[in-house]
């Protein structure tokens, strides 16, 4: 029995996997549509600076940069200040991550959690308009 069919199958499967990986790098992976509103966030050990206090309803991307010395998290909370609408975790010092959410008009809160524990810092009201 010849090994050729097995080798050919393996070669084709490998080529298909490599092509899939190459093509997947061609598309931005933000999770948001092209019309999304971007809100910049700077998180440190003591502050959570959000570039604006409002955004229009629809797709919103919170571009979170960790300017502190330890990992941080960022949350968008509902009007009650408890319900998590969206979160991004494990943002290392000196790195950035995006939180892409689709939100209806309403009142929200933003908060950063340096050290990824406790109640967080910089809890700020955030309004989503129609």
Query: What's the order of the H and E elements?
Result: HEEEEEEEEE
Inertia-based shape: globular
- Oligomer kind: single chain
CATH class: Mainly Beta
What gyration radius follows from the Cα positions, in whole Å? 21 Å
- Sheet/helix structural class: alpha+beta
End-to-end CA span: 69 Å
Number of domains: 1
Describe the largest sheet.
5 strands, mixed
Query: What's the CATH architecture?
Result: Sandwich
Percent in strands: over 45%
Count of individual beta strands:
9
Look up the CATH topology: Immunoglobulin-like
The name of the CATH superfamily reads Cupredoxins -  blue copper proteins
How many separate helices?
A: 1
Whole-number mean pLDDT? 84
Characterize the structure shown.
There is one protein chain. This protein has one domain: Cupredoxins -  blue copper proteins (Immunoglobulin-like), CATH 2.60.40. Helices cover 16% and strands 46% of the residues. It has 1 helix and 9 strands; from the N terminus they run αβββββββββ. The protein has one helix at 4-24; strands spanning 37-43, 48-50, 54-56, 58-66, 72-77, 84-91, 96-103, 106-112, 121-129. The longest helix is centred in the first third of the chain and has 21 residues, at 4-24. The N and C termini lie far apart (69 Å). Mean pLDDT is 84; it is low at 10-30.
A few lines on this structure:
With 130 residues, the protein is of the alpha+beta class. It is 16% helix and 46% strand. Strand 1 and strand 2 form a beta hairpin.
Architecture blueprint of SSEs:
Elements: H1 4-24, E1 37-43, E2 48-50, E3 54-56, E4 58-66, E5 72-77, E6 84-91, E7 96-103, E8 106-112, E9 121-129
Parallel strand pairs: 1-4, 3-9
Antiparallel strand pairs: 1-2, 4-7, 5-6, 5-8, 8-9
């Amino acid at each position: 029995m010849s090994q050729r069919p097995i080798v050919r199958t393996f070669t084709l499967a490998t080529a298909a996997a490599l092509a899939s990986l190459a093509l997947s790098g061609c598309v931005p992976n933000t999770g948001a549509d092209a019309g999304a509103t971007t809100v910049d966030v700077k998180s440190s050990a003591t502050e959570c600076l959000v570039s604006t206090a409002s955004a229009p309803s629809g797709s919103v991307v919170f571009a979170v940069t960790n300017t502190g010395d330890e990992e941080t998290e960022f949350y968008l909370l509902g009007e009650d200040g408890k319900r998590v609408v969206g979160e991004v975790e494990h943002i290392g010092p000196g790195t950035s991550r995006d939180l892409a959410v689709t939100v209806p008009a309403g009142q929200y809160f933003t908060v950063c959690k340096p050290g990824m524990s406790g109640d967080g810092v910089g809890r700020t009201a955030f309004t989503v308009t129609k």
